[in-house]
Amino acid sequence: MDLLNALKNRKGITLIELLIALVISALLIASLYRTFIGQQKTYIVQEQVVEMQQNVRAAIIKMISEIRMAGFGNLDLAAGVNGITNVITPSANSITILGALRQISTLEAGAQAGQNLITLASATDAFDGATYHRYISIGGLESNIVSGRSGNELTLQNPVTMNYPANTPIFKIHAITYGIREAAGVPVLFRDLYSNTAGSQRVTVAENIENLQFEYFDANGALLSLPIANPELIRMVRVTVTARTIRSDTDFKVGDGFRRRTIASNIYVRNMEIIQ
Q: Which residues span the domain enclosing 217?
């Protein structure tokens, strides 16, 4: 009887108490969810910012290394590479450079002045057919045009002017253009190998690069006004690259919601001083 009375006197949870508990629980869950969503969004934004910074650095580092080498290889005997006559073809938002920018092999045997035939240790580049990839530089000291190939033996259009020992490096002379274009609605920085030819090989260097600017300076540090009548006066190129995040952020109340980074670099064109 005492047990029955005790059970009858035990108080339960009222409906109001249950509703209050549910409201408090809902508020706690909503607060936790909001905190989680905020942290996730911050992580995504930071990830996009890091990717954007990597893009702009990759873009400018690649250009620096090649623009700095413009004119390397003593290009006199291979003038007019791919129809381009200037070592630097300047423009405000693009640039085309000529240079012996890639080592492709070495001399297997020494080459003597006056001979037209040289033998390479290896010849993986196809020098036959189209002329746009026939330009080489021997040791970075003199340029030439390959008129024929048999295995690793190259026949040159002009006789070699100096004596070269075995293992002298052989470089490929390229015309390369950097600029901005749209790819599937995304602004990208492109690098065009064999520029101005049917063999053009245009590849994307970095995505979401929306602005690219070039400025050109002479030996006295004076800014050269475009169009530049004599590009041989160029001694330094200032390149400015602006990248943006992949997507706009509605919470970023600046402009169109894209975060942006701009990097500028001065590039001393070391070979232009010896071009007369």
A: 64-274
Dihedral angle at the C-alpha atoms of 135, 194, 65, 48, nearest 10 degrees?
A: -160
From the list 180, 179, 172, the residue with the least C-alpha distance to 82 is: 172
Asked if 129 and 197 count as a contact pair (C-beta separation under 8 A), the reply is no
DSSP letters spanning 200-215: -EEEEEEESEEEEEEE
User: 93 is written with which tokens?
Assistant: 């938002």
User: Within a domain: residue 32?
Assistant: no
Confidence of residue 41 (pLDDT cuts 50, 70, 90): low
Comparing CA positions, the residue from 49, 57, 54, 51 lying closest to residue 239 is 57
pLDDT of amino acid 118: 94
Of 181, 273, 204, the closest CA to residue 234 belongs to 273
Q: Is residue 142, in this structure, part of any structural domain at all?
A: yes
pLDDT surpassing 90 at residue 26:
no
User: Can you tell me the mean pLDDT for 161-180?
Assistant: 94
- Are 96 and 103 within 8 A, CB to CB? no
CA 129 to chain centre: 29
Query: Residue range 122-143: average pLDDT?
Result: 83
- Rounded Cα distance between 88 and 172, Å, is 17
3-state SS, residue 128: coil
Identify the residue whose tokens are 């920085």: 189
The answer to whether position 53 is within a domain reads no
| Structural domain count of the chain | 1
35 in any annotated domain? no
